């Protein structure tokens, strides 16, 4: 990706300054690539710049800057967070048609619809396709490719929560006494309590706050 004297570094564009974007940037910079990160949340851009350093180019998502960066990019990683259940599609088909032949798109947001207009879900057995001579990798749930590592990471997150539930008197107490935990509950006593999931799957939705009010 770079670091060889006299050889221009690989140009990587990352759309999304969250956790995925940050660690993709760290890896790419460690391999000597030139990295640009785009996001519409200024506090995320400031945070990632502070954590990684000044060698990082950051910008809000605007047509002129993003189109120019895409036209020069070797690899583009889409990692925008879905705030309403569906990832924002910020890269149009025309922008992708203007990219270099054999450049690569990795749409990490494909689980929530994808942030590239040309994205279509693929599988681990048939992971890529080409459109406008651009290679697309759009596999949902990429972490399942490294199941053991992903399970360990998930366990590290969930174990403290389970221990916290034990000290509070059970999982239900954790749900209704910790607002941050309540936001992550998708189902409760047979009812779908996440509005976005209910809308996508056309299921009946119940507000978890109503369950909380009924307890008191």
Oligomeric status: single chain
Q: What does the radius of gyration come to?
A: 20 Å
Structural class: alpha/beta
**How many domains, as an integer?**
2
Can you count the beta strands? 9
Low-confidence stretches: none
N-to-C SSE string, H for helix and E for strand: EHEHEHEHEEEHHHEEHH
Strand order of the largest sheet: 3-2-1-4-5-7-6
The CATH architecture name of the largest domain reads 3-Layer(aba) Sandwich
Terminal CA distance = 59 Å
The largest sheet, given as strand count, sense and whether it forms a barrel, is:
7 strands, mixed
The averaged pLDDT comes out at 89
SSE layout:
Layout (H helix, E strand, L loop, with lengths): L10 E5 L3 H12 L3 E5 L3 H11 L4 E3 L3 H10 L2 E4 L14 H5 L6 E4 L20 E4 L2 E4 L9 H22 L2 H7 L1 H4 L4 E2 L2 E2 L2 H7 L6 H7 L2
Parallel strand pairs: 1-2, 1-4, 2-3, 4-5, 5-7
Antiparallel strand pairs: 6-7, 8-9
Helix pairs in contact: 5-6
Summarize the structure.
With 216 residues, the chain is of the alpha/beta class.
Question: What are the salient characteristics of this protein?
Answer:
single chain; 216 residues; alpha/beta; Rossmann fold; 2 domains; two-stranded antiparallel ribbon; 9 helices; 39% helix; elongated
Structure description:
The protein is of the alpha/beta class and 216 residues long. It folds into two domains: 11-140, Rossmann fold (3-Layer(aba) Sandwich), CATH 3.40.50.720; 147-214, no CATH class. It is built from nine helices and nine strands. The chain has helices spanning 19-30, 42-52, 63-72, 93-97, 147-168, 171-177, 179-182, 195-201, 208-214; strands at residues 11-15, 34-38, 57-59, 75-78, 104-107, 128-131, 134-137, 187-188, 191-192. The strands form two sheets. Strands 3-2-1-4-5-7-6 form a seven-stranded mixed sheet, with helices on both faces. A two-stranded antiparallel sheet has the order 8-9. Strand 8 (187-188) and strand 9 form a beta hairpin. The termini are far apart. The mean pLDDT is 89.
